[in-house]
């Protein structure tokens, strides 16, 4: 049985449709990331599941039970808010125990459960501290312990790491994933952060304008985006507007950009008609000095001449911006392995990438 089922859910605020005809299922023990830009409907979806908002149409089932008439505290849902929402006048132990007391847990069982949860989130020994005596990361752990303490059917996390700095966010993201996995918590994570969504979720749902535009594993979402919106929103991309020029014998399609540059691609949009937008991920591009010997041309590879505009070392990656004909700018990403890249502004280079790495979208995609 699915832990969660949303069926044809629609929610409107005046003339604005926040969620439109949305259906979603979630299996036990799975972590699902809801990812999308601000205003796409992901937080409204979470509020509908939690019971803070009622759908205008459709139904919500948790563990096979229609919860449409149930109040939030009657749904056995664990909540972790963006600001943690800890009670400042309560100790850590009292905050974790609050949900259990409110839901009528046996008083004798509460202390051991609190101890178990604080040990799980690595806060053993901090029972008597107050929220203002904790760091942001520790407050986040307390809020997570409170959300898990009632053994909820489903855990809902609303931008759980957004209030933390970048370094701590990465550390706690790893811990959060381990904790959720260790207790087998069925979880929905709402976030606008791509890395957070892709790293936490067993599956990722991309939302846009109140609708689900794609659902899949992190690998599927990144490597096989359903449309141009997903390709643009998830990861970095280089785009070329083109027209189809022919089909090679090897099954690769040829396209021409507005500047007459030929790009070969293995994929082609279904029902293709007219222009196409081509997408190439920066990490798929290899840059070589233009003076280097050029490999024999074949249908599986692309080669574009350009000039290096900028080389920026960004921690583990080196970002190289190349200007192509027609003032088109191309971003290539190299791994920073502690060696000089051998590239400098003003250098003439060739950008090489495989036809198999070119994603093709009809310009009339939406």
Could you characterize what this model shows?
By secondary structure, the protein is an alpha+beta fold. 22% of the residues lie in helices and 36% in strands. The protein is built from 8 helices and 20 strands. The strands form 4 sheets. The chain has a 6-stranded mixed β-sheet with strand order 6-7-8-3-9-10, sandwiched between helices. Strands 13-12-11-14-20 form a 5-stranded antiparallel β-sheet, with no helix packed on it. Strands 15-19-16-17-18 form a 5-stranded antiparallel β-sheet, with no helix packed on it. Helix 5 (166-183) links the parallel strand 7 (154-158) and strand 8 (187-191). The longest helix is centred in the middle third of the chain and has 18 residues, at 166-183. The radius of gyration is 25 Å and the shape is elongated. The protein starts with a strand and ends with a strand. The mean pLDDT is 88.
């Amino acid at each position: 049985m699915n832990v969660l089922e949303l069926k044809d859910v629609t929610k409107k605020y005046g003339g604005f449709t926040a969620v439109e005809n949305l259906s979603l299922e979630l299996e036990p023990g799975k972590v699902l990331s809801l990812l999308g830009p601000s205003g796409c409907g992901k937080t409204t979806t979470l509020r509908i599941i939690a019971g803070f908002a009622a759908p205008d149409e459709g139904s919500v089932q948790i563990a096979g039970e229609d919860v449409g008439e149930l109040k939030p505290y009657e749904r056995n849902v664990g909540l972790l808010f963006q600001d943690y929402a800890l009670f400042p006048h309560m100790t850590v132990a009292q905050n974790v125990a609050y949900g259990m007391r409110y839901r009528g847990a046996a008083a004798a069982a509460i202390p051991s459960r609190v101890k178990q949860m604080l040990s799980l989130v690595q806060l053993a020994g901090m029972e008597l501290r107050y929220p203002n005596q904790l760091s942001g990361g520790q407050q986040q752990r307390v809020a997570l312990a409170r959300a898990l303490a009632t053994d909820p059917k489903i855990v809902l996390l609303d931008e759980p790491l957004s209030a933390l700095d970048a370094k701590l966010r990465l550390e706690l993201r790893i811990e959060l994933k381990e904790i959720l996995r260790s207790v087998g918590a069925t979880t929905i994570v709402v976030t606008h952060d791509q890395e957070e969504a892709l790293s936490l979720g067993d599956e990722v749902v991309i939302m846009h304008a109140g609708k689900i535009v794609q659902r899949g594993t992190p690998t599927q979402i990144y490597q096989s985006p359903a449309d141009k919106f997903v390709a643009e929103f998830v990861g970095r991309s280089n785009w070329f507007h083109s027209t189809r020029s022919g089909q090679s014998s090897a099954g690769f399609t040829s396209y021409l950009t507005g500047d007459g540059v030929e790009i070969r691609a293995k994929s082609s949009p279904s029902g293709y008609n007219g222009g196409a937008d081509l997408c190439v991920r920066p990490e798929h591009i290899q840059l070589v000095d233009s003076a280097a010997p050029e490999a024999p041309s074949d249908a599986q590879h692309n080669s574009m001449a350009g000039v290096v505009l900028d080389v920026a070392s960004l921690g583990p990656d080196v970002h190289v911006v190349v200007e192509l004909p027609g003032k088109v700018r191309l971003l290539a990403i190299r791994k920073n392995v502690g060696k000089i890249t051998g590239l400098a502004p003003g250098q003439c280079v060739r950008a090489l990438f495989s036809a198999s790495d070119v994603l093709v979208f009809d310009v009339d995609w939406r």
